[in-house]
Design a protein that fits this description.
Strand order of the largest sheet: 3-2-1-4-5-6
Oligomer: single chain
Shape: globular
Number of helices: 8
Strand content: 15-25%
Helix content: 25-40%
Order of helices and strands: EHEHEHEHHEHEHH
Number of domains: 1
CATH superfamily: HUPs
Largest sheet: 6 strands, parallel
Number of strands: 6
CATH topology: Rossmann fold
């Protein structure tokens, strides 16, 4: 029996939108995943100056977004431990939770480009089976240069073919605050939660 293939999809998800959902579905299809963990991050090191909604609020929204997708799960691995949270530590903890599984770390093209600046990137490369890379407009990636700095990285890179939806959580938050239309950019359950609770307005 082949090992379970688990995708790790980290983010603040503030709020989770249709772009997140499309990428998650395409990642499962492209990378032959059995399961995809939505890892809700508490306070990412690169967003220390940004105001982020309470973690439990974002967990509620992610649960609403992925309802009806049996291969999706919410992971609290970065919420139930003290900060700071680095990817290498997150993956190490998930290895303990899912022994024997192949872990595939989902990453944006811009983040892949910046990987040499992450905390202990070599540990992360050793721990994961693969990186599922989600391309973004203008994310010029020099794979030769990356390989020179982080040997063994490029053989683990798999680019995810997915339609690009130019939606961002920041734009949605601004739309809600300004009283502009936003429902079409969100899964219905997420839009309902935001409306019922008056979040972001």
């Amino acid at each position: 029996m082949s090992p379970e293939r688990i995708g790790i999809y980290g983010g603040t998800f503030d709020p989770p939108h249709l772009g997140h959902l499309v990428l998650a579905v395409e990642a499962c299809d492209n990378l032959d995943l059995n399961r995809l963990l939505w890892v809700v991050t508490a306070h990412p090191p690169h967003k220390q100056k940004q105001v982020i909604s309470p973690a439990e609020q974002r967990v509620m929204m992610v649960k609403a977004a992925i309802a009806g997708y049996p291969c999706f799960d919410v992971s609290r691995v970065d919420l139930d431990r003290p900060a700071p949270h680095y990817a290498a530590d997150t993956v190490r903890l998930l290895q303990k939770q899912y022994p024997g599984a192949q872990l595939i770390y989902l990453i944006g093209g811009d983040s892949l480009r910046d990987l040499p600046t992450w905390r202990r990137p070599r540990d992360l490369i050793e721990q994961v089976t693969a990186f599922g890379v989600m391309r973004r407009l203008g994310d010029a990636i020099d794979l030769v240069a990356l390989e020179q700095v982080l040997p063994g990285l490029t053989e683990k890179i798999h680019f995810i073919q997915a339609p690009r939806l130019e939606i961002s959580s920041r734009d949605i938050r601004q739309r809600i605050a300004q009283g502009r239309p936003y429902h079409l950019y969100l899964p219905q359950g997420v839009a309902s939660l935001i409306e019922q609770n008056g979040w972001y307005s």
